[in-house]
Amino acid sequence: MLSSLLRVLRTAGAAALCLAAASAAQADNWPSRNITLVLPFAAGSGTDTTTRLISQHLSQALGVGIVIENKAGANGMIAATYVARSAPDGYTLLVTTNTTHSANPYLLKSLTYDPVKDFTPIARTGDLPFMLVIHPDVPAKTVGELVAYGRATPGKLSYASGSSSAIVSGATFAHNAGLDLLHVPYKSSPPALNDVMGGRVSMMFVDILTGLPHVQGNALRALAVTTKDRTPLIPSLPSMQEAGVPDFDISSWQGYFGPAGMPKEIVTRLNAEIRKIVEKPEIKAQLATLGMDAFSGTPEELGTFVNEQLVLWERLIRDAGIEKQ
Fold it and tell me: Which of 70, 98, 96, 44 is CA-nearest to residue 211?
């Protein structure tokens, strides 16, 4: 009996050593082919545009091609689930935001991935502040005027959403300002914004990159940013709190993740290259023009941040009175 047990243990140990050796060899040869970055939002979104800029430099640093694959839909769950079930070999990564990794556990009744257990944190790349925009026909030039109009005409105003930040921002605005707003959800921000510009929906909370060109072209009117304080990206806009809406502080963050179980060597290399890119002054400046406050950190810091954000977004969603769908 004892000899049989020893043979089993020796066999298991040898198998483990072989797997470890294979993993080390895989990491040593990485990358040897194109890397796919899966995005949970459509082309033209803030995450899509900033990722395409960063990926150009990442491709040069790694010496392989970077393929962007947009898998929009189900509030980002399609993309997140796809990456969670991919091989943890460093060739399929998720570039995502608080939508999939902070809000979805509290917005969706049925989630097909775990934002902590199913992913390997790689690097945070920055924040994407949101702003409130309205159709020019809405008779308001300030948040205070919008609130007054909404209270005088309950049920007339509507808000579009194409991400969790937009969903939660709209619901928080309605709750904290005491407004009756109709929520009109979309798969992603670009089509939602199109309907606001077309006058079919009254307003929307949208990332600065996606919304600012339309504000500058007078197709939309911007009233405030969602962060606690004004953002240097658009210093002329007040914050929602400054504009009179209490307890309003919502910001979208962005980061790179791989499937759970990625080799540490690959994670370390990716983290180092991404940090070099976003910390270059000229690239930070380019990303700022795209509405992104770029910065980074270690994989461990991103993992801790995700856990903290899950607590924060649970409170935001509960306080806004949003029920799981």
Answer: 44
Task: Using the structure block, give the residue that is written with the tokens 């928080």.
Answer: 172
Buried b (16+ CB within 10 A) or exposed e, 234-247: beebbbbbebebee
Q: Which pTM does this prediction carry?
A: 0.82
- Beta strands 203-207 and 130-134, pairing class: antiparallel
The answer to whether the beta carbons of residues 146 and 78 sit under 8 Å apart is no
Contact 208, 291 (CB under 8 A): yes
List, by residue range, all CATH 3.40.190.10 domains of the chain: 130-243
DSSP line for 229-282: S--TTSTTSPBTTTTT-SS----EEEEEEEETT--HHHHHHHHHHHHHHHTSHH
Residue partners of 271: CB distance under 8 A and separation at least 6? 122, 123, 296, 298, 299
- Residue 6: its pLDDT value, please? 47
Q: Tell me which residues of the chain have a pLDDT lower than 70.
A: 1-26
CATH number for the segment(s) 130-243 = 3.40.190.10
Two tokens, residue 36: 């796919």
What is the C-alpha end-to-end distance of the chain, expressed in Å? Answer: 56
C-alpha span between 146 and 64 (Å, rounded): 50
Confidence (pLDDT) at 100: 95
What does the pLDDT look like over 8-44, one tens digit per residue? 446 555 554 444 444 555 577 999 999 999 999 988 8
Q: Which residue has the tokens 């470890």?
A: 20
What pLDDT sits at residue 8?
46
Fold adopted by 35-128+252-320: D-Maltodextrin-Binding Protein; domain 2 (3.40.190)
Domain with CATH 3.40.190.150 in the chain: 35-128+252-320
